[in-house]
Amino acid sequence: MAKTAEKIREFRAEAKFQRTSPQKAKLVLDLIKGLRVEQALNTVHFSTKRIAPVVEKVLRSAIQNASYVSDEQGLDVDVDNLYVHTAVANEGPRMKRIRPAPMGRAFRYQRRLAHIIVTVAEKKSATAAKAESEAPVETAAKPKTKKAATKTAAKKAPAKKAAAKKAAK
Hints:
By secondary structure, this protein is of the alpha+beta class.
């Protein structure tokens, strides 16, 4: 029997060259991974991090992308059933800058940029999950079982040394 595997559609949005380090952006993105879209928007909206409004904008864009693509392609996507599938902050190019230092010297430092990518997908409905779990599963041939090999004691040398010491006394 052939399985009818329905591919889960993902919709993404990106914000490139954001003036923050990826490490700081990941702090906000980790808060929303796996959450439903409505809960993720509330979480980001009330976050005190400086990058939070940008993440909220990207998340809203991903939701709009899902709505637009579903209308254009005639897909049946329920926007209320979306969740944050992935949320990553990749490193962008670094801007090299110079800071004045004592005695006429200069120190170099780097301003980091981040590319923020948010992907939303539709959660499987409970009825689809039940139908998939009730489908008959094909069983393959029984896997061969290996018997555990018995190991012999590898440390016999210390016992011989102890016997040699007794004989020497």
